[in-house]
Every structure is written in structure tokens, then in C-alpha cells.
Amino acid sequence: MKLILSLVLIGSLLLLGYVIFSRRMGFAWLTRLGLHMVLAALGIYVVNFSGLLTEAYIPMNPVTISTVLILGLPGVGLLLGIKLAIL
Q: Where are the bilayer-spanning segments (predicted)?
């Protein structure tokens, strides 16, 4: 079973590498991902330290940053709404 899973992993990595480099994407997507991660963290930081909602604090951890990374600024609103609903 481990052999089969290892072969699937190696095959997937090879196909992913083929897709990335055949489309001439190179490593530009890493720059965009990094920029989006910084903007997601900045959005959470603004909510936490703006002083508009003193009772709500959204922790900066991989889960919250990933949520904002995927959903964008509405993700900050979603996390804020969940936090206020739990309080």
C-alpha cells in the first residue's frame, strides 16, 4: 500500500512540475501567493488593532490566514462574524 501511495505522489509531483513549467509560469505564482498572504495578514491586523471593535480579536494563525487568503477581505468579515457570534 505504501508503494502505491508513493508512486501516486511521485506521479502527481511530476505532472504538477510539467504543468507549471510547460505553461511558462515559472516561479511568478510564488510571488503572487506571498503578496496575497501579506495582504491577508494585514487585513487581520487592521481589524485587530484598529480599535473599532475592541471585543473582537482574530488570532493570526495558519487557519485564519488561509481563510482570508482563499476568500479575500470577505473572509475577514466571516471570521469577525463568527467571533462576534461566539461571544
A: 33-53, 65-86
Residue spans of the domains in the chain: they are 27-86
Instruction: Answer yes or no: pTM beyond 0.85.
Output: no
CA end-to-end span of the chain: 46
Task: Output the CA torsion 77→80→82→84 (10° steps).
Answer: -130
In 1-87, which residue ranges form alpha helices assigned H by DSSP? 2-22, 28-49, 62-71, 73-86
15: number of CA atoms within 13 Å, CB side? 6
The three cell numbers locating residue 12:
502527481
Distance between CA atoms of 76 and 14, rounded to whole angstroms? Answer: 35
